[in-house]
Specification:
single chain; four-stranded parallel β-sheet; about 10% strand
């Protein structure tokens, strides 16, 4: 539903796009980024910045489900394995026919980053996963995003 709250197009795989051809990133929104009001602000801001920079991305929409990170942290390995296998199947369908070096996922959630980047390879899901702060930094350095005001204070991102 957060997609309806922005005034630009966000392609959803299987609805607006049937292949990853022409896209650079799959934007993994995550549970909080889709449902929690404060996290939705981050999701919408990142989507807007990616669009402004001309970075072609898509989302899974309703096909995205929990990565299972919290289940594994809580000791429910069965649920983690079940969610991971389900997600890997969906992600692999997005990346079907795409060379390995172009299977890129951007995330805003540290938990999703950990699961997708560090734990999914253990069960057959190998992708390049980048945190949105890394990608936005890269886009600023490439001058695809230009800050409108300088930050005159130190900031710690948690």
């Amino acid at each position: 539903n957060w997609i309806k709250e922005v005034d630009f197009d966000i392609p959803v795989f299987g609805k607006d796009a049937d292949s990853f051809d022409g896209y650079e990133y799959l934007f993994w929104v995550g549970c909080a980024g889709a449902y929690e009001d404060r996290a939705k602000k981050t999701t919408k801001a990142v989507a807007e910045l990616l669009a402004t920079a001309g970075t072609k991305f898509m989302v899974l929409g309703a096909e995205e489900t929990c990565t299972g990170d919290s289940a594994r942290r809580a000791g429910n390995e069965f649920l983690f394995q079940q969610l991971a296998m389900q997600n890997i199947e969906v992600i692999n369908s997005v990346f079907e026919g795409v060379e390995q070096s172009k299977k890129k996922i951007v995330v805003t959630c540290a938990h999703c980053f950990n699961a997708l980047n560090n734990e999914y390879p253990q069960v057959g899901g190998t992708y390049e996963v980048v945190h949105h702060t890394q990608l936005l930094n890269r886009l600023v350095r490439q001058k695809k995003l230009v800050p409108v005001a300088s930050v005159s204070q130190n900031i710690t991102y948690h």
